[in-house]
Amino acid sequence: MPAAPQPAPPDFTARPLTPATWADLEALFALPGGSIVRGCWCMHYRQTGTNGLTGAGNKNAMRELVDSGVVPGLIGYTADGTPAGWISLGPRPEYLRLRRSPIMKPVDDADVWSVVCSYVPRPRRGQGLQHRLLAAAIDHARRSGARILEAYPIDKPERSQDDFMFFGSRSLYERAGFTAVARRSPTRIVMRLPL
Questions:
Q1: How many CA atoms lie within 13 A of 59 on its CB side?
Q2: Ranges of each domain in the chain
Q3: pLDDT tens across 8-33, in order?
Q4: Domain 12-194, CATH homologous superfamily name and number
Q5: DSSP code of 186?
Q6: Measured distance CA(88)–CA(116) in Å, rounded
Q7: Residues 121-162: tens digit of each pLDDT
Q8: What span, in angstroms and rounded, lies between the C-alpha atoms of 105 and 116?
Q9: Nearby residues of 11 by Cβ (< 8 Å), 6 or more positions away
């Protein structure tokens, strides 16, 4: 059995995305390597249909969600308080598009939280920040009453371009104690961590 995930070290903190931290998310997404998150603003899986919002529309929709009191994820910070990463998670029913996804559709009727995106800007990659973000997300989900955390990582032998790894890799989740519960694609799996 894998070791329990360790809390993020003291030189790294994570805070919920709220109106007070909104400007930090904007600054983070503006950094090199953020073109995908700047287009999606982690709203794609919250929408249904083929005519989803893009760019500014997604940004406005995320801002409205945050202003309504929903915490759609966590922002990671370095020791000097600089925004250094983002992880989007929440109760699975909030992600409407997951219901119809052939790869990420529900495995069963368990009450789960989903991790749908993890982003570290290009200048910060290779420092283990995704592992720290995931540890903070696990703590946040547990404190929020989640019983199971689910993720949909990439699982293939060749390396993918970093900018397209917003679901994370299988090894990222395995190191945190997640186990595979379904495979519906040669390159993607569904993994869970009981909390």
A1: 14
A2: 12-194
A3: 445 889 999 999 999 999 999 888 77
A4: Gcn5-related N-acetyltransferase (GNAT) (3.40.630.30)
A5: T
A6: 6
A7: 887 877 888 999 999 999 999 999 999 999 999 887 766 555
A8: 13
A9: 78, 79
